[in-house]
Amino acid sequence: MRTAICPGSFDPITLGHLNIIRRASRIFDRVIVCVMKNSAKTSQMFTAEERTDMVRRAVVRYENVEVDCSDILLAEYAKQFENPVIVKGLRAASDFEYEFQMDLVNKNINPSLETMFLTASGKYTFLSSSVVREMARYGADLTGLVPSELIEEIERKAKQWGKNNG
Ligand code: ADP
Q1: Backbone phi, then psi, for 106, in 5-degree steps?
Q2: What is the pTM of this model?
Q3: Domain that holds residue 65
Q4: Residue-level pLDDT, tens digit, the chain, 166 residues
Q5: Does residue 9 line the site of ligand 1, with CB under 6 A?
Q6: Most buried among 41, 102, 143, 156, by the most CB within 10 A?
Q7: Can you tell me which atom of ligand 1 is nearest the CA of 89?
């Protein structure tokens, strides 16, 4: 049985993330989506619990996908699985440089840990969690950017965030 780990900050989860998770679920027997609690990329908008809960709701329809969260290094986290593969999405050259560096760091800690990259779908090449947060702050329509069942919650949170920070 081959396990994939899809790590990320998911702050919040977007349709770009979901596209990678769904494709990984067709390739691997089991997919663990791991919400990294202390990722350097996280904003103040969503807590780790909120991010994890949103990911859970978004992947509920995929039978072989599970959700977990972690506050330890990914290379350490991966040690609990048998020969796991990290699966990440690649959008642009900037993603490549960062991911290449992360792979070297991971291999230093856990030499047998491999990372596989799936190229972003053309529709989602420019989609990131930070774009979603920015659009939500300005009250823009989030249709087509995040799972529809999460739109209301993200909008509510952005409004609340605006009140506390503006
Ligand atoms: P972001 O870069 O949006 O803040 P994360 O840190 O949560 O997202 O990213 C987790 C993984 O998801 C990374 O491998 C990233 O490249 C991938 N990813 C994020 N957005 C997309 C997208 N639109 N298409 C494909 N992969 C993506």
Answers
A1: -60, -40
A2: 0.94
A3: 3-164
A4: 999 999 999 999 999 999 999 999 999 999 999 999 987 777 778 999 999 999 999 999 999 999 999 999 999 999 999 999 999 999 987 789 999 999 999 999 999 999 999 999 999 999 999 999 999 999 999 999 999 999 999 999 988 877 777 6
A5: yes
A6: 102
A7: 26
Cα torsion 41, 43, 49, 55 to 10°: value is: -60
* DSSP alpha helix (H) spans, 5-142: 15-27, 48-59, 74-77, 93-109, 129-137
Q: Which residues contact 84 (CB under 8 A, 6 or more apart)?
A: 3, 4, 5, 32, 78, 113
CB 5 within 8 A of CB 72: no
The closest-lying atom of ligand 1 relative to the alpha carbon of residue 99 is 14
Give me the number of domains the chain comprises.
Answer: 1
User: Is 42 near ligand 1, meaning CB less than 6 Å away?
Assistant: no
